[in-house]
Amino acid sequence: MHVVVAGGGTAGHIEPALAFADALRRRVPEVRVTALGTERGLDTRIIPARGYDLALIPPVPVPRTLGRELLTVPGRLRVSIRAAADVLNRQQADVLVGFGGFVAGPAYLAARRLGIPYVVHEANPRAGWANRLGARFTPYVATTFPGTAIAHGRHVGLPIRRVVATLDRPARRAEARAAYGLAPDLATLLVTGGSQGARRLNEAVSGAAAALRGAGVQVLHASGLSNTVEVPAGRPGDPPYVVVPYLERMELAYAAADLALCRSGAGTVVELTAVGLPAAYVPLPIGNGEQTLMARPVAEAGGGLLVDDADCTPDWVAATLTPLLCDPARLATMGAAAARLGRRDGDERLVDLALEAAASAGGRRGGARGRQQ
Predict the structure, then answer these.
(1) CB atoms within 10 A of CB 358
(2) Are 299 and 175 part of one and the same domain?
(3) What is the pLDDT of residues 96-126, one digit of tens each?
(4) Does 368 have pLDDT greater than 50?
């Protein structure tokens, strides 16, 4: 069996694709997996490092405004469809599983042209153009959140890394705090704005460092690869304030923390609820508002806080998060509420759907074998 996954460009597309691929390998050890990607994004760094073959095709970003660049889309799309079809044929694909983004649209169209069954996975409450297009021509459509408006959608959840899905936070707490040089018994705030960081979060928490230290709160702060954080010097004996550019082992960061301050992308919301970690969510103030849509149900259920980007200031951190971090009973209640919303089996449920799609082709091995464009 050979499966091609199309989820290139950003970590938000790549990580669910690889979590799905990992689950598929556990279920079908002999499966061969090839990932479609582009040279533009994180594909060439992340995908080979996880042990998967990478095939590059030209991306087809669609401009959001009218202009000369929009006129080039049809030609670039044809080139990308041909490139995706070449990969599907060469790899003798039995099924394609797409996760949206610049490579998924051409891949869906190539699979449809070749008669290869394909699965669409939509991570966000509002589907992107590539997945809306692909979902029209396949009955195998998965969503992360219930109620997503997309054709043929089934709510299966988001594939997340196994080390996160199986995390026992209390059991790993001492190990995790020791790994980051944190004290074993102090309330701990985790700050993360994603791989590139978030300046608003960085400035809000570093600006509240004195208040946090004064309350006996320690901080694990991921600044982001493109940002730095200047933390005022503390006094001897103050709680640690640890700054790292990037968290390679996010599961340990979750285990170390009592509360997270973060953006509210799909992966973040799903992982935090899966492990039962309460959070203060600060949605990106740009885009179509989907980060607010993802975090609001958690806040309404009592599993987190929702704060506007403009309101996330040092004063807000000092006045709101500091007392919360000093209230273990409330944190425990919030964590339990978050966990009730969490799903840890999105990867396995998506594997079920992919195998169903592959079986729909009549059990052919090498679905694209011998077919021409």
Answers:
(1) 28
(2) yes
(3) 999 998 889 999 999 999 999 999 999 999 9
(4) no
Question: Is 367 inside any structural domain?
Answer: no
Q: What is the DSSP letter of 181?
A: T
State the residue for tokens 């401009």.
Answer: 63
Residues 123 and 260 in one domain: no
Residue found under tokens 């990932």:
35
Q: Tell me the residue range of the domain where 189 lies.
A: 167-341
Q: Are residues 153 and 221 in the same domain?
A: no
Distances (CA, A) of 242 to 177, 272, 335: 11, 21, 23
CATH value at residue 74: 3.40.50.2000
Tell me whether residue 49 is in a domain.
yes
Q: What is the pLDDT of residues 121-142, one digit of tens each?
A: 999 999 988 999 999 999 999 9
* Helices of type H across the chain: 11-27, 43-46, 68-71, 73-90, 104-114, 129-135, 162-165, 169-179, 199-207, 209-214, 250-256, 266-275, 290-300, 314-316, 322-325, 328-341, 346-359
What is the reported pLDDT for 362? 63
DSSP string covering 33-101, please? EEEEE-SSSSHHHHTGGGT-EEEE-------SS-SHHHHTHHHHHHHHHHHHHHHHHHTT-SEEEE--S
Higher pLDDT, 64 or 246: 246
Q: Are residues 109 and 218 in the same domain?
A: no
Residue with the two structure tokens 């001492």? 174
Domain-embedded: residue 366: no
Residues 219 and 209 sit within 8 Å (Cβ to Cβ): yes
Q: What is the Cα–Cα distance from 203 to 318, expressed in whole angstroms?
A: 13
CB 91 within 8 Å of CB 113 = no
Same domain as 124, residue 11: yes
d(CA 141, CA 100): 12
Same domain as 124, residue 175: no
Residues 122, 224: one domain?
no
pTM above 0.90, yes or no: no
pLDDT digit string (tens) for 345-367? 999 999 999 999 999 976 444 44
What's the domain count of the chain? 2
Q: Which residue is listed with tokens 């570093």?
A: 206
